[in-house]
Amino acid sequence: MTIQLYNTLTRRKEPFQPLEKDRVHFYVCGPTVYNFIHIGNARVFVFFDVVRRYLTYRGYEVHYIQNFTDVDDRLIKQSIEEGRAVPEVAESYIKAYFEDMDDLGVNRADVHPRATEHIKEMQDAIRALIKKGYAYEVDGDVYYRPLKKEDYGQLSNQPLEELKAGARIEMNDRKDNPLDFALWKKAKPGEISWDSPWGKGRPGWHIECSAMARKYLGDTLDIHAGGMDLCFPHHENEIAQSEAWTGKPFARYWLHNGFINMGAEKMSKSLGNVERVRDLRSRYTGRELRWFLLSAHYRNPISFSDESIRQIGGAIARIDTAVTNLSHRIGAALDGEAEKVMRERLRTLTVDFEKAMDDDLNTANAISVLFEGVHLANELVARDVVSRGSLEAVLGWLNHFGGDILGLVKTTREVDLEAEIEAKIEERQQARRDRDFSRADAIRDELAAQGILLEDTPQGVRWRRK
User: Fold this and answer.
1) Could you say which residues bind ATP here (predicted)?
2) Is 231 annotated as belonging to a binding site?
């Protein structure tokens, strides 16, 4: 079956056919690094991490780019509040981003370009747009004329009046049209800036991704993705300026994930119900959060609650138990190849898994298939006699589809390592109860040398990898 993707641009499912037969050019809009990321941001990065893994499984060479916006109005404001330079603020939150994503099992992109490292590329794009009449300079600011492009608004599918209401419109009367947006912003006194043909300044938000995407992936991307909140104005404006710049389609498939609700309310800063990943990690494991983010179809909204995470914790425990039991049985099992009936049942599971993912990347249905694999594992382990080949085949299936693709199943070695860490933590706790603080400190140092950091909380000791 051909992979079917829902394309926001055409508002229908379409067969996935990249420009190059076996290669996918894939760009995901990364965070603006002025603060810690929240769980809504994390849904983007976790889900498209799975998409990348699945496309790789399906035989594609995936060139995956995810940027960092490390200069904009919010970063400048944050730098003033924190009393640190913009680059220092950005660097600290990029580091925090990777810590959060490592804990949620998100693999690094092939390239994580930063806006501030691509000023030349942005200026080249702006010069080209001015030359073509799509952009104009006013006293050090450069604006783009989106209405010059006849199909502007096609991605978000909104009337122009609604687009104006939703746009980030700067209140000044120097624009030709209120919908015109900034490609280059004149520097205010004391702001971070770069030299340019239009004076000292910095790039606008939208031109950053256009320039970085073209540098690393070419004129036309196969997939451009991000949260639904980016559909307008960011992605709409990227299309307008990129296609005016190159004269070619900017992206073939546009994928957008839905929002996260906190109970019955949409998560938003105005309501004060935003949950940062950094804070959630003190209450839940990274795998629990990852599972939650994949538990609904990506285009649907998803509701966050403590109860939903508790249920996920139980599901993860059942999977870990199945993996551990399979591993233990393998050690004592009789030699022998996998039974034919077992191979057939695994082949059926594989077909069902691919059917779920091929149908617009339905991770919720794929997780259901994963649990069918867990049921098969439990059935196998319960037998009095079973061949090593059958046990290894089922364990391999769980590790591959549940681990390599979904990132939800830990390998046997990972489970064993975590058991060793937990045992060390308990040894440290006993040493503290015995008031043997030098031994407790030595255990902490031993774990730190292995990249394991401990955090003593009112709820107990939590650990994470550096």
Assistant:
1) 269
2) no
